[in-house]
Amino acid sequence: MNKFINIDSSVLLTEEDIAFTEKVIKCGETEGPKFDSISILMDEIPIFLVSNITMKKLEDTEKKERDSEKPITNIVDYLGLYTRNFKILDTDIRAIAICPERIIRCCDADKRPVLTAKVIIHELAHLKMDMHPDADYGYMDDFFRWMEEPLANLITLQYFDNFVKNTCFKYKSFSNFSEKDNNGVFEFVKSFIEGQPENYKLANELFRYESLKNSWDEWRKNKKSLSIGYIKEKTAYLNYVKENKTIDESFIIDKLKGLGFNL
Ligand SMILES: [Zn+2]
């Protein structure tokens, strides 16, 4: 409970928001527990609750660090954010910030715990993809955004999918989410992603293929080498994912292998 630290949010998380998030993480975890399991990371990183205004400031700082040559399109207001550089006094720490004020504006009241869990797991997925000695891309360009965001959502979908499969008979404790509605939880997350910008939305396509299940692990291992090379291959990947709403398994594997992914 005290792992969420309120900075200046007028909306706090409810007990149900927190219990549901923990439940999805616990029941959605098929691996581990390993040092980089979401359940372990959740215990290790501070999660700050921030107001709409503070989130705007954090967003602006982050967007400034992005590729300034290209116009920034498709950037929506963040519901959450993971950063290596959260300033506490004069020190930079890794932290997650979430904005409950924005979260409650984005869904019906009964889906609030689901969206809260979705946002928190997505941000923890960024941290997970940062947990490797070579997980250092540096400057966040277009390629980074088309790799990092869909894969954070892919990890999120995997947790919700496992959660639904593992709990169809066990999870009955909250009135709003009966056994019958568990499937609705997964569908809600999928349709929320469907409404996100194109790079985030790519996750729903990637999720269709079992062969791409661990692609996030290949991405984090290859971030450093991809940040300095693979110009032609990065362009080929970007062209393919931007031009095709439906992703073909063999085509995407071919593009990812070109980027050094061992799939
Ligand atoms: Zn993200």
DSSP helix fraction? 40-55%
Q: Indicate the overall shape.
A: globular
Whole-angstrom Rg: 18 Å
Major sheet description: 4 strands, mixed
Number of helices: 11
Low-confidence stretches: none
How do the helices and strands follow one another from N- to C-terminus? EHHEHEEHHHHHHHH
List the helices and strands and how they pair.
Layout: E1 4-6, H1 15-28, H2 38-44, E2 47-49, H3 52-64, E3 80-88, E4 91-98, H4 100-103, H5 112-128, H6 142-167, H7 182-194, H8 198-206, H9 215-228, H10 231-243, H11 249-258
Parallel strand pairs: 1-2, 2-4
Antiparallel strand pairs: 3-4
Helix pairs in contact: 1-5, 1-6, 5-6, 6-7, 6-8, 10-11
Describe the protein.
This protein is α/β, with parallel strands linked by helices. The protein has one domain (4-258). It is built from 11 helices and 4 strands; from the N terminus they run E-H-H-E-H-E-E-H-H-H-H-H-H-H-H. The chain has helices spanning 15-28, 38-44, 52-64, 100-103, 112-128, 142-167, 182-194, 198-206, 215-228, 231-243, 249-258, and strands spanning 4-6, 47-49, 80-88, 91-98. A 4-stranded mixed sheet has the order 1-2-4-3. A hairpin with a 2-residue loop joins strand 3 and strand 4 (91-98). The longest helix has 26 residues, at 142-167. The mean pLDDT is 89. It binds zinc ion (ZN). Zinc ion (ZN) is lined by residues 122, 126, 149, 152.
